[in-house]
Amino acid sequence: MTTKMMGAKVQRVEDDRLVRGTGRYVDDVAPDALHAAVLRSPHAHARIVSIDVDAVLDVEGVHAVWTHEDLEGAMAEPLPLLIPHPTLTHGRTQYALAKDEVNHVGEAIAFVVADDRYVAEDALARIVVEYELLPAVVGIEAARTATHLVHDDVPGNVAARMEQSNGDAAAAIAAAPHTLSLDLKIERSACMPMEGRGTVARWDPDQNRLQVWTSTQTSTGVRAAVAAKLGLDLGQVDVITPDVGGGFGVKIVHPWPEELLVPLAAQRLGRAVKFTEDRREHFISSAHERAQMHHVEVGFDDEGRVLGLDVRFWHDHGAYTPYGLIVPIITSTQLLGPYKPGAYHVQFDSLYTNTVIVTPYRGAGRPQGCFVMERTMDAIAAELGKDRADVRAVNFIQPDEFPYDQGLIFQDGRELKYDSGDYPAMLAKIKELVDWDHFEDFRAAKAAEGKRVGLGLACYVEGTGVGPYEGAHVHIETSGKVKVATGLTSQGQGHQTAFAQIVADELGVRFEDVEITTGDTRRMPYAVGTFASRAAVMSGSAIHLAAKRTKEKALRIAADALEADVDDLEIVDGVVSVKGTDSSIPLGTVAVLSNPLRYAFDEASKAATQFNVGDPTKPPVAEDDEPGLEGKDFYSPPRSTFASGMHAVIVETDVETAEIRILKYAVVHDCGHLINPMIVEGQIHGGVAQGVGGALYERMAYDESGQLLNASFMDFLMPYVTEVPASIEIDHLETPSPLNPLGIKGAGEAGVIPGSAAFAAAIEDAERLPITAMPISPSELFALRATHAPHAQESK
Amino acid sequence: MKISGQNAIAAPVDKVWEAILDPRVLVATIPGCEQLEATGENAYAMTVSAGVAAIKGTYSGSCLLQDLRHGEGLTMKLKGAGAPGTIDATVLVSFKDDGAQTVLSYDADAVVGGMIGGVGQRMLTSVSRRMAAEFFGNVEKVIAGGLPAAVAAAEPAVSAEGAPVYAAAPKAAAPSAAGGESFLLGVAVGGGLVLAGVIVGGLLGRRR
User: Fold this and answer.
1) Structural domain of residue A647, as residue ranges?
2) Residues of A with CB below 8 A from B203's CB?
3) Testing the interface with A: which of B111, B116, B200 to mutate, by most A Cβ within 10 A?
4) What is the separation of C-alpha B190 from the centre of its chain, rounded to a whole number of angstroms?
5) Would the keyword tRNA-binding turn up in this protein's UniProt record (chain B) (predicted)?
6) Residues A483 and A582 in one domain
7) Which residue in the set A125, A133, A709 is minimally distant from B122, CB to CB?
8) Do A451 and A477 fall within a single domain?
9) Residue A232 domain-assigned?
10) Could you count the other beta carbons within 10 Å of the beta carbon of residue A592?
11) pLDDT by residue (tens digit) across A735-790?
């Protein structure tokens, strides 16, 4: 065996291409395609009285202009509600093009296809829409008050009310020696991938086939939706996802109106058609997340042990519910983190507002849940005058308690049962990394310099690798090269590298001989998608299993050829040999032998023709076998695997300006066995950057009429490298998952989850005033100081 | 969004009230106003070309004057739409007699939609104030020096529906005296139009 690849810091092979600008994205495909543009509602809530497209019809260069009236059959029906749930009693989805009513600024109303985007946009400007304005419902308070309704037939703006409990929380709180109640709030934000949405489609009239290129997190999902909406057989539709410039959750939604309209236009016009979203469109017509308000009641003992926890929260899901209740369900379950409250009850309302839809954004409801739980832990510590880490420690699930059943149902409909973890060990690591025990010395030293610093800690548990399944196909070519396909898509996670490491290890081939294809339905038509930190767990496991099958076949054929026992064979650098001898055969030759030929085409294939191989008394391909050196397998776990982590941050809050500076950021992370620590750390870095954004900068500034006031990068603040800590100290813990063959857990979202919780704690610690709403800007902190005069006086 | 401000015109309130209600004055004084058409009692359709720096374009809109209290104030209902955005606004305009001058205060509650709502809204308040000041300054000049000759002399054209249509004078035309009842209406509309024109116009222009 060569060096084991699993666990090695292998440099990402895709970066050479991506960093040099030779990545191939949807917009790079079909440069001669016609371009589509979409007329979007300028109003948050309005009835469409009339749409006049006459002025567009004879514009030179315009090939099509459609409104809802031009759509037929399934295309004229509302878009699918992707994830139904029994408690989602009032789910609503939009039409591909608005019918009668618009419910948020940016909702698609008309669709134009023209020679280029300039002509298409000029054409849009000529469409005259008459609106009757309706009152807009903006923000959770307005939705909850329900003076006005988003949808006339949804009373109280409530799409769903869901409740779960484990034990009698109310009774436990009533009987507890100490109780607290808290109100906690998180604002809206959005993922903001560098590449927005984009779709290209070609209709091939000779084959009656549709080819769709789209920037998605699920090519099989798009394929199924396009086929259903256009009335095509699944077999007529190929969906290919090339390089994707970031997903972060927003691209798991499908089909977007454009993902249906573009293929339909390609089919009707017989030309390739392209839609490339611009930045403003991304702000107002893709998806947001995060906005929630929470009320917590907690009862605890003298040690800070939580005896009963009751959480009521309100989730703003925007104008429609295509992605069901996934985000609030995750908040309601993952809020528990590494803790085991004596009893827990949670209830949430998922509310309509006249704003952009909500779908999972990296972390997906967990940043809110973590914020709520960790603020509660800090409040308990403050109430009892105890160390914040100690209060957490008494609430931890202990290492010998796994698997630990939280007694709830998770977002995948399966038990919320933690598979493994070691939270006390993790706490010890994070305390050491941030020098927790000596922080008061540091604070005193800084105070002597006239500076104000604070330390925050936040712990989380993240269900990763949700089902139902992923698959993989491994094919060893006669050249010895290994072609691997898995159906889920890549948005920069380093799948080419990580998956090739798994294959190289299992097959005994050289890492550089492995080529990974993702997100192409022609190569792997059965897949689910890339979300919920599931790619490594799901496809990684499937690839491992498929490679194992391929290896078994290779060894069986090689054993025959080498006249040896399978158990005596090993594969190193793509060559099968009998251990301890010089008897060997390259895998490429094994591939030749695996496919009995009648016709030779080169020197190698001569060896496989029927006069040269096989037992003449038996069929060339055995009854239970098939030609080719290939293996295919699927991985489908019983439930999610639960990764965990703890972040600690030290901030300095400027005494004069309330500017918040990050002095130190530390992460301890447990995602089971690491395939590639360099990639995992890269994921953590990216996650922490987004966590900093969510805690200190990013918000969606809607005015009361539903206009998004900061729909550009001039006004929407994202952290640059200058706002992200220059160094993030990372330590790993590896408690393997028992649920998959590689013992791995997901790592993609982890870095972002505890951001708001940790920063809120650190700022509170610095300022000695309660931080109950995030994100927080220097201006808001300044204002908070004014309303909490005691500290201001104390510091003087 | 809410925009409020005030400007002083160096003329007695009656004069200003008169001036501000004359469509011919409006056409001449509203920055970027190209055409004004009476569509009913105290109701106008208008075309305003306006913009901020490179973002320019033409808006179609309407203006309805309500609650006219002679020399005291009025309410304007404005609607405008152009490629980059829409506006719906209610503007309360009050006139205050301040001896030799008249102080006009405006208080606009505007719903700005489309691209201008999301991209330019933070700039609109200051741009609106600047354009309002320009408008009121123009009105002051007209009161003092009269309308441009071409405007004053021209009879209004008549639209297909028979409504009078007022076109703007060529730039740099010489001022001449003018006045009259309808003149007044004009300038009031102007205040609103400016706001509309500005707000809407500010974002006008082609996307990209």
Assistant:
1) 362-464+639-795
2) none
3) B111
4) 2
5) no
6) yes
7) A709
8) no
9) yes
10) 26
11) 999 999 999 999 999 999 999 999 999 999 999 999 999 999 999 999 999 998 75
